[in-house]
Amino acid sequence: MEISLFLCGGASKQDAELRATLGARLAGKKSKYTYVVHYPETMFAELILGHKRRNLLELENLLAESVSAVIIPLQSPGTFTELGAFSNHPRLCDKLVVIIDPKYRFVKSFINTGPIRHLRTQTKSLILYQPISISTVDDLSKIVADASRTIAARNPIEPSLLNPLNAKDFFFILATVLEPLTRKAAIEIAEVLSPSDKCKAALVADSVLDILVNERLIFTKAGKYYVPPRSVEQMVSAIPTEKRRIETRQLIWSLRIKAMNCIYRRKSVAWS
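The chain above was modelled as a monomer; its predicted structure follows.
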């Protein structure tokens, strides 16, 4: 019942405020559905600004393929560009919820006669004509939530280690079991487990480690990744039943002991 959303938005102070408010309203909705909102430019900060200098479009494509729906409030040059890029993407063009201010509905513009017309006639994406402002954000969040559920039902997400959102728990446990974990080891393990697309597996491993650091679930020291005990407990406490929480703790530390025996004592162990 979790619906993951990629929320686009402008860079100006007013646009950023609207985006943050809309994201908070969606995440705070009380229903049988849980809306999880993602912002790629903050999640992937190290990959964009660090030494590898990956481009944001590449990372946005990776994230957008992994979420239930992509929300694009058309309010800035940046969102116009994202609309053009995503409407031409073979896998993303059916996952868009585009919000347009009603005053632009019948304007003869390239946006209306190009990507909007394409999305309306050739894809399963949804076009919403709603005022885009702080004063209308409550109504907007309800309409976006409804549209997101429709898009999500049409595009179920397949769990995979090539999905950075699905892979977060895997790499977190990997860092816990093999602590200290190196980035090189994480990438090599990802490539072994996803031999059909090693390049994407490496990008996902890179991205997820960055996400975990940004969320302060793990930290780096001298080029290696460490997991604070509070992070393990935070992850375990999210499990709904006490029985499963106990079993998960036991499993994690059992795997950790086996890994230490294998690495430091050169002992062969049975992992099953």
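The mean pLDDT is 87.
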